[in-house]
């Protein structure tokens, strides 16, 4: 059940960030807005599918645990198994959400490329990448691709910051 609650929190946070981003792009030109609206429609469909799946799983687990004795035993176990801050920080989903929130707050000030490099590097470390070549090649390659695609081809201005 704890995993389902964590999944639900992730869905709510992703939905909140998506709605904030959608609100932010409402000032874009019509052409750019159409691309983002299409992507947001896909995100919305995936979000709804995941929410329905999660709702069905929670409903099923609640109906499986309706007997009073089972419920009392589970409540006793839950009281003793409350996650500590250390356990929460060991959860990769929580850390990814924290990293994403920091990224979204910081990148307008530091700039897209520097912040994105640090973010992708941190995510690689979090996911367990050990090779130093992979640690630095993945964010470098990704940002070169983004630079070529968005700045050179599409002529989109990305937030500039301290270095780039």
UniProtKB/TrEMBL annotation:
Keyword Transmembrane helix belongs to the record: yes
Entry superkingdom: Bacteria
Annotated organism of origin: Anoxynatronum sibiricum
Name of the protein described by the UniProt record: Tripartite tricarboxylate transporter TctB family protein
Residues of the DUF1468 domain: 37-159
Keyword set includes 4Fe-4S: no
Pfam name, any one: TctB
Keywords from the named record: Membrane, Transmembrane, Transmembrane helix
Transmembrane segments: 5-22, 34-56, 94-127, 133-154
């Amino acid at each position: 059940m704890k995993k389902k609650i964590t999944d639900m929190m992730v869905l709510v946070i992703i939905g909140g960030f998506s709605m904030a981003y959608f609100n932010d792009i409402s000032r874009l030109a019509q052409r750019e807005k159409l691309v983002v609206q299409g992507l947001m429609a896909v995100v919305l469909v995936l979000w709804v599918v995941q929410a329905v799946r999660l709702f069905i799983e929670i409903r099923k687990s609640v109906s499986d645990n309706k007997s009073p004795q089972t419920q009392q035993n589970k409540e006793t176990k839950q009281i003793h198994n409350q996650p500590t801050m250390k356990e929460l920080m060991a959860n990769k989903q929580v850390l990814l959400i924290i990293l994403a929130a920091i990224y979204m707050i910081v990148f307008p000030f530091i700039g897209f490329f520097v912040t994105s490099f640090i973010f992708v590097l941190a995510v690689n470390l979090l996911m367990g990448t050990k090779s130093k070549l992979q640690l630095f090649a993945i964010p470098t390659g990704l940002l070169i691709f983004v630079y070529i695609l968005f700045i050179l081809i599409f002529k989109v201005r990305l937030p500039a910051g301290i270095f780039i």
